[in-house]
Amino acid sequence: MPAQVIFAYANDNKQSLKFIEEEIDAVYDSINNINTVRNGLVNPVKLEHVSLLELINEFNARKDELTVFHFSGHSGQFDLLLDSDELIDGRAIAKLMEPATNIELVFLNGCANKKLIDWFHEAGVKRVIATRRKVFDQYASEFSKIFYKVLATGTIGEAFDQAKAYIIATKIENIHQQSRHISSDNLKGGEEEFPYSLYYRPIFKKTMARNDDLNKYGEWDKWSFSDYRFTATEYKPCLKLLNTIGAQGLEMVKYLHRTGSTDKAEINAFADLHNEYKKFKASPDINFSGKLSDKIAQLLPRPLGIIMQQLVGTAKEIMRGKTQQYDALLNYQFRFYDLLLKISCYTMVSDMYEVIRR
Questions:
Q1: How far is Cα 124 from Cα 137, in angstroms, rounded to an integer?
Q2: Of 113, 241, 262, 314, which shows the fewest CB atoms inside 10 Å?
Q3: Is the dihedral of CA 181, 184, 188, 191 positive or negative?
Q4: What is the pLDDT of residues 116-129, one digit of tens each?
C-alpha cells in the first residue's frame, strides 16, 4: 500500500483566508509528483472544507498507512476551526490518530497551536510542526509550499530549514494580512520570533530542541518519503512455494534470494508450509489439512488463516459421520486450499515485483 498523506483545510466564513486553497493545491501537487519518479509510492488526499466526521472517516480508512497529516486553517491554543465554523478541540483530533501507528508527521498550519504538541506526541506521532504565535495567511501558505516542495525530494530537516530560510529572506512577515487565529488577528506575540518549530516526540529524541546545524542533522531530521517501504511483511517469498506458479515467479524470487533481499528464516518457514501442502495434496486427509491450516494462519495474511481453521473445524464435525457430505466437503476443501495457496503466491510475487521496481 502507498503512504497515505492527508491535506485538510477549512476556511472561516467571517475571516476568510484567501491563500489557503492555493496552498493546499500546491502542496498536494508537490507530494503527488513523487509518483512520477516512484509510481504508487504515495497517495495524497485533499480534503476541502473538512468536517470532523470526514476526518474520522478518513483516519479510519487510512490508519494502517497514514504517514502525514496536514491541517491548514484557523487555530488557537487547543482548537481547530473546521467547516461551517465547527470549533473542534485539537486534543480530540490527536486521540483519533492513535490507531495510525505509522504516522511520521503532523503539520498544524494555523496560529498559536503549540500546546497541542504533547497530545499528538502521546498519540504516537513522531514529529509535529506547530506555531508558537500568530501567523498571517500568505506567510503560512508560502512556508508550507516550500516545505513540501523540498520534502518531496529531500529530508524533513532539509525541508524545514529551507522553508524557514526562504521566509526570512523574502520578508513575507512584513506583509500583514488576515491571520490564521480563531478569535482575533490581534494575538499578542513577538513577531521577531520565528513562529514555526519542528518538535520531536521525547522517546524519539531526548530533548525538544532541534539541531539547526545543516551539516549535522541527527537521525531524527533524516526522514523522507524515500524511506517509506511497503509494510505488508506477510508477503515474503518462498522459493519452493512460488515454484507452483510457474517460471516467471520462480525467477523473480531467485533474483531476490541471490541479492539477499529476503529473510532466510522466513523462506524456510514457507518451505515447511510447502511441504505440508504436498502432503495434503498427495493424501487429502483431515489431519494434514489441520497442520496446513495452522501454518497458513502463522505465515499468510490473517483472514486466510481464519478461513482455513474454520474449514477444518467444520470438516471434523462432518467427518464423524463419514457421510457423502463429508466426502464432498473434503473435495471442495482440497480445491480451495489449492486455489488459495496459488492466490497467495501471486500476491507475494506482486509485492516483490513492486519492491524490485523501486
A1: 29
A2: 314
A3: positive
A4: 999 999 999 999 99
